[in-house]
């Protein structure tokens, strides 16, 4: 059967920092993987000091589109823009810009994603949890819009102009950026006599046993960590090659935590948890069973 996977992300670079090795793992299996990017990242920062120039700030929207195109090529995916405007990261008490993605009614903003879901007809969709993975307003809004679009895409009375209804059989929250993963890397580095690169970060990151207990699905994608790193580096304005993303050698990462991790939140097929495959329960089903 034809397998189809849709990742929904807030900004260009999120597809490379969250679940990129999973993406490469499934692309290598012949899965049709599409990334829907909610915003253009127009109000993001330049996080790579080597790219922090006035010219790059002036050209940031175009740069982020070009970086996304390069990352998509590395990952072997198709990518679509949903067309919303980055909200930025406001200071406490500061209002969001009037055109911000996070200001929109999720039921209305769901329209473009409904169209993508109905055209692709994915068996699996991944998005962020209710916290956004971290409290950026666009990540929280990405969650809200994703869940609204999933419901609307299956409703024949909603958005009829966007095609025939489709119920996505399996829906996941991407949970890869959890404390347990980085604590494992830090401990493995210490055991190898290479210091503790995440010690300060972990000290400020409280234990979250609830988040760890939510993990249901562990995709064994360590062989694709190199692809993930290459996709990350394609986002040159956002990723510092000397930063903490690359503080742990790949061999230690592969040994310390060889999976990317998810929470299964909706399934219309039988499942047995924990899983090691986003398509578990789907592969033996007829291709059109979830309509």
What percentage of amino acids are in beta strands?
5-15%
Number of strands: 7
Helix fraction by DSSP (H/I, runs of at least 4): 25-40%
Q: SSE order, as H and E?
A: EHHEHHEHEHEHHHEHHE
State the oligomer.
single chain
**Largest sheet data:** 7 strands, mixed
**Structural class assignment:** alpha/beta
Low-confidence stretches: none
Principal-axes geometry comes out as globular
Radius of gyration, in Å, reads 19 Å
SS summary, helix count:
11
Order of adjacent strands in the largest pleated sheet: 3-2-1-4-5-7-6
pLDDT averaged residue by residue: 94
Distance separating the two termini: 15 Å
Compact overview of the structure:
The chain is of the alpha/beta class.
Explain what the structure shows.
This protein is an alpha/beta fold and 291 residues long. The chain is 36% helix and 15% strand. It has helices spanning 14-17, 20-28, 54-58, 60-75, 106-120, 137-153, 179-191, 199-203, 209-213, 225-234, 250-256, and strands at residues 4-9, 32-39, 78-84, 124-127, 170-174, 217-220, 259-267. A 7-stranded mixed β-sheet has the order 3-2-1-4-5-7-6, sandwiched between helices. Strand 4, helix 6 (137-153) and strand 5 (170-174) form a beta-alpha-beta unit. Helix 5 crosses helix 6 and helix 7 packs across helix 11. The protein is globular and about 60 Å long. The two termini are 15 Å apart.
